[in-house]
């Protein structure tokens, strides 16, 4: 059977498929080459994608022999789940496989905001020794507000607790008596405004949906503390980018860490890249060697399970 991998996949998973007798074609840029992809896809029994391949009705119609779709991550905003369901094609994300890596990225962002080592290093290399300017702040006793209280948010909360932070969270779908809140030390709040008003850091952990698009925009920044930072490692489009630029430029908030953008890769001349206090990274929060090895192996194994006639417990449709 033939498997087509259209985006970055760690060797472990590719080798696992080959060891089990599958023929694998791998082009990590194919997700961006739509017409080539549409031409190639009918020949494959399984499709393995990441976040850039648009898996819509058109692609699924072309994928006449495809029996399963593996997703090398958890965000599903690039996949038309209804269209997959209608065609009886299970979609299998790498459930929880990169959550710890994202949680560590959020901790790194908060530490960078308060202890900017890269900037201090650059300054010392210029011959300066400015101890006053580089005096930082402690995360201890600061408030972290988590928007969305799913898998990643809880892993962030555990780590933030270890740093002595107060952690609050907003998620209308999580019950206030849910045991996970007690286990990870999150105090739930009832409204997004309440979270924004109290937080020194606001970290976003919701999927991109119609309801979450531009969930953080102009009026929300006005609620926030002037020294607060926004961290978005979830999806571009949840934070309104132009409103963010204006909020940082007018000092309504201190800055932001964005791992994800509304249009990826970053556009030439993007206003985001002109604001020093907006820190950008190329969608790498979930990318570590460990997480990608786990992700690739999990997806390879679950895809093979379906191709061999079994059922994957990780399938979302
Ligand atoms: N940057 C990266 O590398 C990276 C890596 C992994 C995941 N992600 C993104 O992070 C997102 C979250 O991942 P997760 O594993 O924590 O997902 P999850 O499904 O475990 O949690 C999402 C939470 O968001 C909540 N939610 C949904 N709509 C909401 C709303 N309108 N208001 C408040 N809460 C709402 C849900 O109730 C759920 O608890 C993913 O959907 C993905 O887009 C990014
Ligand atoms: O949704 C995810 O898991 C992440 O955004 C990482 S990736 O799969 O898009 O690389």
From TrEMBL:
Pfam families: 2-Hacid_dh (PF00389), 2-Hacid_dh_C (PF02826). Residues 3-314 form the D-isomer specific 2-hydroxyacid dehydrogenase catalytic domain. The lineage of its organism: Bacteria, Bacillati, Bacillota, Bacilli, Bacillales. GO terms for molecular function: phosphoglycerate dehydrogenase activity; S-sulfolactate dehydrogenase activity. It comes from Virgibacillus litoralis. Residues 107-285 form the D-isomer specific 2-hydroxyacid dehydrogenase NAD-binding domain. This is D-3-phosphoglycerate dehydrogenase/(S)-sulfolactate dehydrogenase. Keywords: NAD, Oxidoreductase. Gene3D superfamilies: NAD(P)-binding Rossmann-like Domain. Belongs to the D-isomer specific 2-hydroxyacid dehydrogenase family. CDD domains: PGDH_4.
